[in-house]
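The authors assume throughout that readers already know how a fold can be written as discrete tokens. For illustration, here is how one protein appears when written out as sequence plus structure tokens:
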Amino acid sequence: MLGREDILKLVPHQGSMCLWDEVVDWSVQDITLRAFNHRDVLHPLRCDKQLRAIHLCEYGAQAMAVHGGLRGRERGGAVVPGVLVALRDVQLHVARIDDLPDALEATAQVLAEGEGSQQYSFRIHHREQLLAEGRAAVMLQLP
């Protein structure tokens, strides 16, 4: 298991905008993470005292970033930042997430990749309840 300090070294988002707290497990193909910050009244994505389910897309994108960073680090290369360019087939199964009492848990899986791009699927749960799912494409910012 990797903690927040390790995650901060892998993603461009820092401070409270880094949304994941721990990596539970990962392989070359997928990753599982947990977050506990969705109930925080100071969450940077809150609006009108709520954290809406649409923000789970950012959680999914950051899960991809953490996975990409871990894969890059394992290969001995630099962590390559990316830019989210598309979301597809996103389904939100709740309206908000700030009222959920336990951790959010995400899984993300590489579907396709090339030298300058990656496509992932993501699913985010609370306990056994599926909150959101979808696919995302990222263009990598190669040197």
About this structure: The two ends are 30 Å apart (CA to CA). Strands lie at 22-26, 30-35, 82-92, 104-113, 117-126, 129-140. The chain has two helices and six strands. The chain has one domain: 4-140.
